[in-house]
Amino acid sequence: MSLRQDILDVSKELLVREGFSKMSMRRIARNTGVSATSIYLYFKNKDDLLLTLIEESIEKLKQALISEVKVHKEPVRQLEDLARAYIRYALNHPQEYEIIYMVRPEEMPRYPKEKFREVRSVYELISEVIQEAARSEQLSVAEPLISAYTLWAQLHGVVTVILSRRLDIRIPRDRFIDQAIEHIIQGFIIQKTPA
């Protein structure tokens, strides 16, 4: 493993455990077993390091979702599989997930405008699948991008309940995930009224 990756791994752990304000380059260096100046060979400053962690985490999430979109399926099934891939990524990579969504905004460095395109691309990917399902008259949505954000917010709630260990112990996790996805998707599906 490279020193750059070691620095990112240590930073990830410190960030999730203690927050951005308590994360210092010296502390990262000490936990990595290198001098603080070694970190500056790879990252300009602490902000640059955080943005790198966020970008890499977003890219991994995006790749997990893209792999579902590449498989040819009908749109509603594709949306269900996207939801499963999203939750699977979050549960298999909790630190990366927390870095994307749980770093408090006041702790965030100013995010360069061009980087927002990458963040938005995850929602746009979901939005494209929703648009396709709406075109085929399987989903009832007026504004696909808003629907994509709504879908994300609901999935984020499911993930947060599990990661924060707030799921009632009487409820099996897999059944909770299955039913949550079913309920979320059903909220978008056009209900056919009997003739």
What does this 3D model show about the protein?
With 195 residues, the chain is an all-alpha fold. Helix content is 69%, strand content 0%. The protein has nine helices and no strands. Helix 4 runs antiparallel to helix 5. The longest helix has 24 residues. The radius of gyration is 19 Å and the shape is elongated.
Radius of gyration: 19 Å
- Give start-end ranges of low-pLDDT stretches: none
CATH class of the largest domain: Mainly Alpha
Shape: elongated
Counted up, domains total 2
End-to-end gap: 64 Å
Topology-level CATH name of the largest domain: Tetracycline Repressor, domain 2
Mean pLDDT: 85
Count of helical stretches:
9
The helix/strand order is HHHHHHHHH
The helicity comes to 55-70%
Key phrases:
single chain, Arc Repressor Mutant, subunit A, 2 domains, 9 helices, 69% helix
Summarize the structure.
With 195 residues, the chain is mostly helical. Helix content is 69%, strand content 0%.
What's the arrangement of secondary structure elements?
Elements: H1 3-18, H2 25-32, H3 36-39, H4 46-69, H5 75-92, H6 94-101, H7 113-135, H8 144-163, H9 173-186
